[in-house]
UniProtKB/TrEMBL annotation:
Origin species: Viridibacillus soli
Domain ABC transporter: residue ranges: 4-229
Keywords, alphabetical: ATP-binding, Nucleotide-binding
Protein name: ABC transporter ATP-binding protein
A molecular function GO annotation: ATP binding
A Pfam family reported for this protein in Swiss-Prot or TrEMBL: ABC_tran
InterPro entries (UniProt xref): AAA+_ATPase (IPR003593), ABC_transporter-like_ATP-bd (IPR003439), P-loop_NTPase (IPR027417)
């Protein structure tokens, strides 16, 4: 079943095109990572999907409904971000008490247990929490809604490493018990790679790639060895990233399409295959310069 569908979505802020030609669909229950550099339109896309803002043109449907101003979509989806506002007079417990009025699948026990585990006092005011604590509470809230479409916009900002690890684990355990469509935008792809089934990579407001992680891992190949030999083998391939290393060694990442390297011969010529992590690959695919920051310091 198609849960999310976008066709030629465009969003302009005055003359600025924040999103353009966005076409993709998400089928069924899975966790998708929404990845992209700063300012590439992740938040804008999530806000459109959640019905908080309207696209300039194109179509978007969530559970077959247009999300903007749609009560059905509001009841069945949630966007968690650090802009979430709750009434100033509400303690955390008050927020939890009101949640079942809006979210029919609300799991009060899960929310309470997670609050205890993360040592968040139900008597605290949301506005008094630190950044990391606020995001932890927001995450708990999002998880406990069990919404059919649950979206997290950079949920782990401000959380320390131990909390992040627990949050990833809680997300995975709850998802396995109650599968649903989850989208997480994050700059920490390497950390949460194990959670994700698909990657939706945005670059300058466009979809750069929408693939499963398995497909993504086969998308590129890393070669390292003597610079002249690496360059010889890389001839004719699209180079996604290049880094000069000590001892005249070169590390090159190539687009793996139609790669038919003879691994034995490469090894004989001193070239090693280096796996390219999904996080690094997404960075290379959205870098404007093949050599990255090093280029700034090179003549
Ligand atoms: N309300 C707005 N008014 C004008 N421009 C906006 C507005 N919201 C977003 N933009 C612009 O749209 C583009 C996309 O912004 P968006 O916040 O969606 O990116 P992002 O990928 O979430 O970025 P980050 O990773 O830094 O949070 C940016 O150029 C931003 O300046």
């Amino acid at each position: 079943m198609t849960v999310i569908q976008c066709e030629n979505l465009e969003k302009k802020f005055r003359k600025k095109k924040a999103l353009q030609n966005i076409t993709f669909q998400i089928e069924g229950e899975k966790i998708t990572g929404l990845i992209g550099r700063n300012g590439t339109g992740k938040t804008t896309l999530l806000r459109i999907l959640a019905g908080m803002t309207k696209q300039t043109s194109g179509t978007v449907t969530i559970l077959d409904k247009t999300p903007f101003n749609n009560l059905f979509v509001s009841a069945n989806s949630i966007l968690i971000n650090d802009q979430m506002q709750f009434p100033g007079s509400f303690k955390l417990q008050d927020i939890l008490n009101f949640a079942p009025d809006f979210y029919e699948k609300w799991d009060a026990e899960l929310a309470t247990r997670l609050l205890q585990y993360f040592r968040l006092s139900p008597q605290s005011y949301h506005s008094d929490l630190s950044k990391g604590m606020k995001n932890t509470f927001n995450f708990i809230f999002g998880l406990a809604t069990r919404c059919t479409v649950t979206m997290f916009d950079e949920p782990i900002n401000g959380m320390d490493e131990a909390v992040r690890k627990d949050v990833y684990r809680a997300l995975l355990k709850d998802y396995l018990a109650y599968p649903r469509t989850i989208i997480i935008s994050s700059h920490f792809l390497d950390e949460m790679e194990h959670l994700l089934e698909d990657i939706l990579l945005l670059d300058e407001g466009k979809v750069a790639l929408h693939k499963s992680l398995d497909e993504l891992r086969e998308h590129a190949i890393g070669l390292q060895g003597p610079a002249d030999v690496v360059k010889k083998w890389a001839t004719g391939f699209e180079i996604l990233h290049e880094k000069q290393l000590a001892g005249n060694q070169l590390y090159t990442v190539l687009k793996a399409q139609d790669c038919t390297f003879n691994e034995k011969q490469l090894l004989q010529e001193g070239i090693s295959f280096i796996p390219v992590s999904a996080g690094d690959l997404c960075l290379y695919l959205t870098n404007t310069r093949v050599g990255g920051i090093d280029d700034v310091f090179n003549d």
